[in-house]
Each structure stands twice: as C-alpha cells, then as structure tokens.
Amino acid sequence: MARVVWHVPVTVTGRTTSLRLFRLRDGRRCAVGFSSAGALAELLGPEQAAVELGEPALRALTAPLGVDELVLDPRLVASPVNAPGGTGAARPAGGHSAACSGSRLQHR
User: Fold this and answer.
1) Which H or E element spans position 38?
2) Could you say which DSSP state residue 86 is in?
3) Which residue stretches belong to region Disordered (predicted)?
C-alpha cells in the first residue's frame, strides 16, 4: 500500500516549527493538508513552510489541542478578519465533510 503524505503548512520561528491551524467558517479550529507541494504553494504562497505528514501523525499532533477537523486541499482561504477585541485567522472555505477514523475529514 502506498504511503499517503500530506503537505502541512507550518510556522518556523528560530529552531521551533509549529503547525499552522486555521478556522472553519463556524469558528472551529482545523488543520489543513495538501496533496502536493504545488497545491500548498498555489494557495498559501511559495514562501509558506511545510512538513510532510501522514494523516495519523497529523491527528496525533492536533488531538491534544482539541482539533479534530482536518481539511484536505482547501480551495479558498479568506483574508484575516479582525474581530472586535482580537485578531482573526485565515479561514478555509466551508463545504461537505465525511466521517473518517472517528473524526471529521473535509476534502475540497
């Protein structure tokens, strides 16, 4: 069986690498993955750092944070929205979802 790898956006600060989390339209946090480095660069820009992870590894990293939504190949990321009293984050577009491994996986 072929190993499925997602290209997952990260933030690199010094020697620290952190997953970038996004928000769904309803405000819930989610992680995103892309099926190719090109798809990630097309949506988030060529300077966006990324790591390659399988779905189980991504779920293991996000579960302790209470994030169980994964979005594969999002098509639209809105500009940051500043809410009163705070800053917003980029939000992948909403869409249909399918159950996967007890958590929700959204494919765009």
Assistant:
1) helix 37-44
2) S
3) 82-108
Read off the tokens for 25. Answer: 């339209």
pLDDT digits (tens, 9 = 90+) for 13-47: 999 999 999 998 888 999 999 999 999 999 999 99
Q: Model pTM?
A: 0.69
SS3 46: coil
Sign of dihedral through CA atoms 21, 89, 27, 33?
negative
3-class SS of residue 98: strand
Q: Give the max Cα distance, the chain.
A: 49
